[in-house]
Amino acid sequence: MTDTPAIQNRATWLDxxxxxxxxxxxxxxxxxxxxxxxxxxxQAEAAGQQTWITVWEGNFLxxxxxxxxxxxxxxxxxxxxxxxxxxxxSLWLTLALLAVVMILxxxxxxxxxxxxxxxxxxGLIVAVCSVVAGFLAFRGQERANQAG
Length: 148
Description:
The chain is mostly helical. The chain contains 5 helices and 3 strands; from the N terminus they run αβαβααβα. The chain has a 3-stranded antiparallel beta sheet with strand order 2-1-3. The longest helix is centred in the C-terminal third of the chain and has 30 residues, at 118-147. The protein is elongated. The mean pLDDT is 88.
């Protein structure tokens, strides 16, 4: 018995959810993820400072989850149209879950005077969708392995 992954001829709808989650995460990364608290907006504007920032202007916990979700998208596309990747569903589930944990950590550790923006909420929803799709794909693959 060889350790070669099975190649599917067609991508499943779960694969497309995973690919779409990576694309949506990339788009959400350019929205306001962090904003100045309402009580400090006037001071920030008077000083000529920005009142919101994107994920790319944040720290590692801000931008790395987006990179993870984009990596999942690349893996899923690579699996279907390039070389097969071993254990792609477990890797997908792990990376997406890590992205959710990192987004939540960044959210609960925001400094005083900084609030979460629309992009953070959208990014979290996209990451959770990727986790759910990855879990369903993982369970489907486990069932297929047990049956065959």
